[in-house]
Design brief:
This protein is of the alpha/beta class. It is built from 8 helices and 11 strands. The strands form 3 sheets. It has a 6-stranded parallel β-sheet. Strands 1-11-10 form a 3-stranded antiparallel β-sheet, with no helix packed on it. Strands 3-4 form a two-stranded antiparallel ribbon.
Length: about 220
């Protein structure tokens, strides 16, 4: 399915990724991970193919499989601090502000691989309000593409996974949504490569309408 088609999805709750979906943080992610790649003698372009959508220590485990977990976790903590302090170039995805405003009072949650300080800093830098329910790195034991975060989001909202629609940009995030048994709206240029149910350029192409029976109609064009 492509953005050229007009699609309507019905759901009871929406689960929203942050980076690449609500917030464009690519400039920061590129800076941080390319520096990390250089320090470890890795090809930066190959690193970037893995980094999006995952928690940092999960990316490191893929790229340096023989490195101790404790070292990845310590390295990840340092990088999170760097990312939280660096908001230069962090902006809202087109349509994100209006999209979030349209969800006030409707069942939705943020499900991000960022931790609380990073997600708070990036949403603030982009001028976006944080959803009331947030599943962050601290909430889960496994990073995307594991479905744990999305399943926890659905549970927090009291909605069956099959009644949730995920909004994601990355291959890891789309795989996590699929593994959770949810439908996925892909956002941005990366998403269409990973088989979402429907893909759009940005959130200006999405409109959510609440129905009297409590369901949500998601209009995608």
């Amino acid at each position: 399915m492509t953005a050229a088609a007009f699609t309507v999805l019905t759901a009871r709750a929406l689960l929203l990724d942050m980076d690449g979906t609500l917030v464009n943080s690519d400039a920061v992610v590129e800076r941080i991970w390319r520096r990390w790649a250089e320090r470890h003698g890795l090809d930066a372009d190959e690193v970037m193919k893995v980094a999006h959508g995952r928690q940092g220590h999960s990316t490191m485990a893929v790229l340096l499989p023989d490195r101790p977990v404790e070292q990845n976790l310590a390295d990840n903590a340092r990088m999170l601090a760097e990312e939280t302090a660096d908001t230069d170039g962090v902006v809202a995805i087109p349509g994100a502000r209006e999209f979030l405003a349209s969800l006030r009072g409707l069942p939705h949650a943020l499900v991000t691989s960022a931790d609380v300080p990073l997600s708070t800093a990036r949403m603030a830098a982009a001028g976006l309000s944080l959803p009331g329910i947030r599943i962050t790195a601290e909430s889960v034991g496994a990073s995307k593409p594991d479905p744990e975060g999305f399943l926890k989001g659905a549970a927090e909202l009291g909605v069956a996974p099959a009644d949730c629609v995920v909004f994601e940009d990355s291959g890891a995030g789309i795989a996590a949504g699929r593994a959770a048994g949810m439908r996925v709206v892909g956002i941005g240029p990366r998403a269409g490569l990973h088989g979402p149910d429907v893909a759009v350029r940005d959130l200006t192409q999405v409109r959510v309408e609440a129905q009297e029976d409590g369901t949500l109609r998601i209009h995608v064009r």
